[in-house]
From TrEMBL:
Domain of life per record: Bacteria
Name by which UniProt lists this protein: DUF5710 domain-containing protein
Segments forming domain DUF5710: 174-217
Domain Helicase HerA central span(s) in chain numbering: 17-102
Organism of provenance: Stutzerimonas stutzeri (Pseudomonas stutzeri)
Pfam families: DUF5710, DUF87
InterPro entries named among the record's database cross-references: DUF5710 (IPR043764), HerA_central (IPR002789), P-loop_NTPase (IPR027417), T4SS_component (IPR051162)
Amino acid sequence: MKVNWGLDAGALSRKPSQQVEVTLDTLLAVNGHTLLVGMSGAGKTFQLKKMVRQMSRSAEQAGEPIPKFYVFDVHGDIDIADASTVLFSEQTKWGLNPLRVNPDPHFGGIRKRVQGFVSTVNRVMRTLGPKQEAALRNILHDVYAKHGFNQDDPTTWTIKDDAKQLVSEGGDNRFYIDVPIDEKDEAKALGARWDGTAKSWFIPSGEYTGAITRWPPKMTDRVHPSITDVLRMARNVLQQLFLGTGMKAITNLEVANRAAAAYQRKLLEALRRGEKAFEDEKLKADLEKAKAKAIETFSEYAESIVTGRELDCVMKYDSTDVLKSVVDRLENLDSIGIFKAEPPPFDPNANVWRYNIKPLSMEERKLFVLFRLEELFLQAVQRGETKYIHDVLIIDEAHIYADDDPDNIINTIAKEARKFGVAMVCASQSPTHFPDDFIASVATKVILGIDEMYWRSSATKMRVSEDALKWVRPKRSMLVQMKTSGETKNDWRWVVIPPEAAAA
């Protein structure tokens, strides 16, 4: 693929009739990544549109695969002919599902998806503490189990078209049954209760015997879990910890232990004083009362055991305070309104998919784009190594998503995606927003005109002179650097934009 930036200014100055084009050839460049920097009005949007047109046309002319373009449009102004455009907001019924599992046995799986989800949430939002993170991981694994995903069985990572699952699979001590509306009174008389959230009748797990079995278990299409599913599970577990006898038993055992320790301390102090007949009626009564309460609640807990998973549930979620903070975080994610199970209605035959994320807040944009980039990168890795570029990721205002964390997907793509056929085009107002490693990894850098307050820092960052930055005139001239294979040093080209190209 090729992109023509303009005419070499040096050649024009020596001989005006000699026009030497400055052109990017992705087969010669060390990678297909491009960084476009320019202040507002410098022509970034125009250059992004031009790149899409020229890359598509040149790939077709050369007999190369025509790449798929994924355009993340934060201002809603990157209008591209024949693009399939979808608007994302909390009011749209479609969205992004960050919990979709990659079914590849080597590059996918539940652990990788859980790790990616937690890492991205920590990067964008307030970082979870160790106990909160552990609780969230446990909830996620429980939700995946409920949806039929087994970490040790990769065959469960693929959802077949006709796959079904029990609504209650995964264990929340409720067994859902399929009761017709005109038979609800009969089911209620046999002990069934209504779950308004699941919109289904249920009975306690382990009680699906006798007359109630006239109604079959409730089944549903097997799907990937969503943020809403995780929140529902977390709330259910929190309710169990608040109300469940298991946690009550553990709490009362702690009370009994403290009472026994207090009595023992008093006894030892009395013995040291030479008192051989020590008695403290109040402490002794408190201890006996605590013991009786612990025995009572442990008996209740033993009677409540149905699924065999109750003790695990009590032990792995640490405390109600920790779980409550995780529920709060999940409620914040769910309230954003962009994480939904229904996929966006993009035209699968369109070469350009444009994500119009203008209605989203800064935090929402960051979560959305980072999750989607991670998904696209993993798909490319699964596809395998290739000579040609198959995916072009166009990220407007890319500084929103950049940081110096090596695990940030932006940095990962810059360093590793070339061999998997991925090119990333980032546009921003200044190069100072990006870490040095990212800038060093990008083969092509284009300066369209930087605000003078950034000249000194940009000159250092990009290894370009301030005189060169002063020479640039938005929409009339630019600076271009292209790293080619086999070269460790590449000079900046001073490029003139022909009037007809600037007006195109």
